[in-house]
Design a protein that fits this description.
CATH topology of the largest domain: Rhomboid-like fold
Distance between the termini: 79 Å
CATH superfamily of the largest domain: Rhomboid-like
CATH class of the largest domain: Mainly Alpha
Strand order of the largest sheet: 1-3-2
Number of strands: 5
Oligomer: single chain
Mean pLDDT: 80
Order of helices and strands: EHEEHHHEHHHHEHHHH
Radius of gyration: 27 Å
Number of domains: 2
Shape: elongated
Largest sheet: 3 strands, antiparallel
Strand content: 5-15%
Length: 297
């Protein structure tokens, strides 16, 4: 700091937050700009000689631009939880009950014939609804139990922090987009079923949010642990394991997790609870309409 106070008479910044003023002072000290921190009538002020004012303002502005997203927002502390008890259990229960209706994979099953993801049906015949209906079908009990258990855990965290509407919209989009990309990269009579594409989408969403420094370490550990556990439970070398669907669900989810957070993410930007429920209802409606189209077709 400059000792000759008589030459310092230009106010640069004023604030009631002493820590903020000390931070500004530290920035100016780092670039060797003489200044004074003074007690004013309404808080604190930072002063410099008049000829240093422009360079001082430039340095402070540059510092603030470089640290726009710091410190990071933490879900466990700064960002309030939107929903304490999101409706995850009913959704997972519905998925399990639906398996009881459709049964396991069977070549002569009407459910699988009309709802499974078949490459030629989607690409050549335009049956886009199979991208949705395939997410609700499962090959065997291990398949559905794994998806319901791990998917339920991941969905719970997503819904609490993003709201049920936003969370399920992202999950459904990750599953649909993952299926769509996988279909385009395969040829012939490629077939696929299962909610695991969406589950790996959840893993990607949570991981993407963590990469933006918004999630807590619990979500990161849960996401990675669930992904590894799901792969271990379902296997990675079996002929019925669709690693492509898992991979693209993860990739799409990762992109969504990064995008939904954004540079200026705040829970205040999230829709109100009533709109969250409206979005949640739209997700359910899309599934119902897709199955309606599948059964009619």
């Amino acid at each position: 700091m400059l000792k000759n106070e008589t030459k310092i008479n230009t106010i640069v910044r004023q604030t009631r937050d002493r820590q903020q003023l000390q931070l500004w002072s530290l920035v100016l000290s780092a670039v060797n700009i003489p200044h004074l921190v003074e007690l004013a009538e309404d808080g604190w002020q930072l002063t410099v000689e008049a000829h240093l004012l422009d360079s001082c303002q430039d340095e402070l502005r540059l510092f603030e631009e470089e640290n726009l997203d710091w410190p990071p927002i933490k879900y466990g502390a700064a960002v309030p939880i939107i929903e304490q008890e999101p409706p995850v259990l009913p959704v997972m229960a519905a998925l399990f009950i639906f398996y009881g209706i459709t049964g396991p994979w069977a070549a002569n099953s009407h459910w699988f014939a009309t709802g499974a993801l078949v490459r030629d049906k989607v690409v050549l015949e335009g049956e886009w609804w199979r991208l949705v209906t395939a997410l609700t079908l499962h090959a065997d009990p291990v398949h559905v139990v794994g998806n319901v258990f791990f998917g339920g855990l991941l969905a719970f965290f997503l819904c609490r922090h993003l709201g049920s509407g936003i969370a399920w919209l992202l999950v459904l989009f990750a599953g649909i987009a993952g299926n769509g990309i996988n279909v385009l990269l395969h040829g012939g009579m490629y077939r696929s079923i299962g909610f695991s594409t969406a589950v790996f989408g959840m893993v990607g969403i949570l991981s993407g949010m963590r990469l933006r420094r918004v999630g807590g370490w619990q979500e990161t550990v849960l996401a990675l642990g669930s992904g590894i556990g799901l792969l271990a439970l379902m296997g990675t070398a079996g002929e019925n394991t669709d690693l492509g669907a898992h991979l693209w669900g993860l990739v799409v989810g990762l992109c969504l997790g990064i995008l939904v957070v954004g540079r200026r993410f705040s829970s205040r930007l999230m829709p109100a609870v009533r709109y969250q429920w409206l979005l949640f209802g739209c997700c359910l409606l899309l599934v119902v309409v897709s199955w309606r189209l599948a059964l009619v077709a």
